[in-house]
Specification:
The protein has ten helices and 19 strands. Strands 9, 12, 15, 16, 17, 18 and 19 form a seven-stranded mixed β-sheet that branches. Strands 1-8-6-3 form a four-stranded antiparallel β-sheet, with no helix packed on it. A four-stranded antiparallel β-sheet has the order 5-4-2-7, with no helix packed on it. It folds into two domains: about 5-175, RNA polymerase II/Efflux pump adaptor protein, barrel-sandwich hybrid domain (OB fold (Dihydrolipoamide Acetyltransferase, E2P)); about 175-390, 2-Layer Sandwich (Chloramphenicol Acetyltransferase). The chain has helices at about 90, 110-115, 120-130, 150-155, 175-190, 205-215, 225-235, 280-295, 370-385, 390; strands spanning about 5, 15-20, 30, 35-40, 45-50, 55-60, 65-70, 70-75, 195-200, 245, 250, 260, 260-265, 270, 270-275, 310-315, 335, 340-345, 350-365. α7 crosses α8 and α7 crosses α9. It has about 400 residues and is of the alpha+beta class. The N and C termini lie far apart (about 65 Å).
Length: about 400
């Protein structure tokens, strides 16, 4: 009897995933525990192994389509076996077998003619949002399945075969990661009253120390590693900046789990350095480099991307200077580092040129007032301008 493999919850409350790439085609052989498919979740691209060996009889969705957790991902059986049309996961992709239901109705109370069409749950939801009757839409996907593009073509009042170009311009579907970022950013902006304060750092000694450390250890030392080292004593002194607001209570975290913003082709990822206060400068630099490489390759694990208590973003690495960052939900602050650039400064009454690095500190005004935010930033600037004490710890 064929093995019907449903999309599992692979971590952190997953509700759906996009199919990135099938490693085994329909009709192809697969061994148990060998990679069957790559899917993109809200946080990472994950390889899912086959739960059993045999021949792949059916794909529950095509590359680029979305499946809900619990929907049929694949069917594995014996060579020559057929997955019958009458029990196809065009229906199984809704997470259940076809049901006749009351007269004239299909699954979930849909009209019978609409329930009989092949479409994934996310496509059905899109059609409902736009008032489109799926039974009137011609599906252009494999096996006649209706895709997102088919629904949007119906919304525009055109069909795919006679539309030379979209009537309202090109439509580009957002990736799972970009959709997740959009939802998180919207929630943070609506819930948290943001305040941003700014300060400049004379980075002369910091950069000299960075060069000396790189020469001593024979490896590059990231600016993020140096700033985290400078942050540790400041966050120990100003604990409200390493906290989570929970109703009428503030949870002050015992360790500094720093989220590091990583720019990828698909969007921003924020992997987390656990207990960063326990790591040496070299360990921090190595961890940051590893997270950056795995982030750009979209090979981070789901647990690499959760639990940050403070966030650090180095826009200076991209040539940026200042910014007004959005505070991640569940935290009270975020620090942005800008690019150090030669700037006229006054020393002992004389004008000279020094590398100046801009800082932007965003914080939650519900729990942190402007004065406290500025004192926190002043203290951090002191550490960065004279790095010897914190580097000696």
């Amino acid at each position: 009897m064929p093995y019907v493999f449903e999309l599992p919850d692979i971590g952190d409350g997953l509700t759906e995933a996009d199919i990135v790439r099938w490693h085994v085609p329909v009709g192809g052989p697969v061994e148990a525990d060998h990679v069957l498919v790559e899917v993109e979740t809200a946080k990472a691209v994950v390889e899912i192994p086959a739960p059993a060996g045999g021949t792949v009889l059916h794909h529950g969705a095509q590359e680029g389509e979305t499946l809900a957790v619990g929907a049929v991902l694949a069917v594995i059986g014996r060579a020559g076996e057929v997955w019958p049309d009458g029990d196809q996961p065009g229906d199984a992709a809704t997470g259940s077998r076809r049901s006749t239901g009351p007269a004239g109705r299909g699954p979930a109370g849909q009209p019978a003619e609409e329930a009989s069409v092949k479409a994934l749950p996310v496509v059905r939801r899109l059609a409902r949002e736009h008032g489109i009757d799926l039974s009137s839409v011609r599906g252009t996907g494999p096996g006649g399945r209706i895709t997102r593009d088919d629904v949007m073509a119906a919304v525009d009042g055109v069909t795919r075969e006679d539309a030379v170009a979209p009537a309202t311009g090109e439509r580009v579907r957002l990736s799972m990661l970009r959709r997740t970022i959009a939802g998180n950013m919207t929630a943070s902006w609506l819930e948290i009253p943001h305040v941003t304060v700014f300060h400049d750092v004379d980075a002369t000694r910091l950069l000299a120390a960075r060069r000396a450390l790189a020469a001593r250890h024979g490896r590059s030392i990231s600016m993020e590693a140096l700033v985290i080292k400078a942050l540790v004593p400041v966050l120990d002194e100003f604990r409200v900046f390493n906290a989570t607001l929970e109703g009428d209570e503030l949870l002050l975290h015992p360790s500094l789990d720093v989220g590091i913003a990583v720019d990828t082709d698909e969007g921003l990822l924020v992997p987390v350095i656990r207990r960063s206060e326990e790591l040496s400068l070299i360990e921090l630099a190595a961890t940051i480099a590893d997270l950056g490489v795995r982030g750009k390759a979209r090979s981070l694990r789901p647990d690499d991307l959760t639990g940050a208590t403070f966030t650090l973003s180095n826009i200076g690495a991209l040539g940026g200077a200042r910014g007004t960052p959005i505070i991640p939900k569940g935290t009270t602050s975020i620090l942005v580092i800008g690019r150090a650039a030669d700037t006229p400064v006054v020393r002992d009454g004389a004008v000279t040129v020094a590398p100046v690095m801009p800082l932007s500190l965003g914080f939650d005004h519900r729990v942190i007032d402007g004065g406290l935010g500025q004192r926190f930033l002043n203290r951090l600037v002191e550490n960065l301008e004279e790095p010897a004490p914190f580097l000696a710890d």
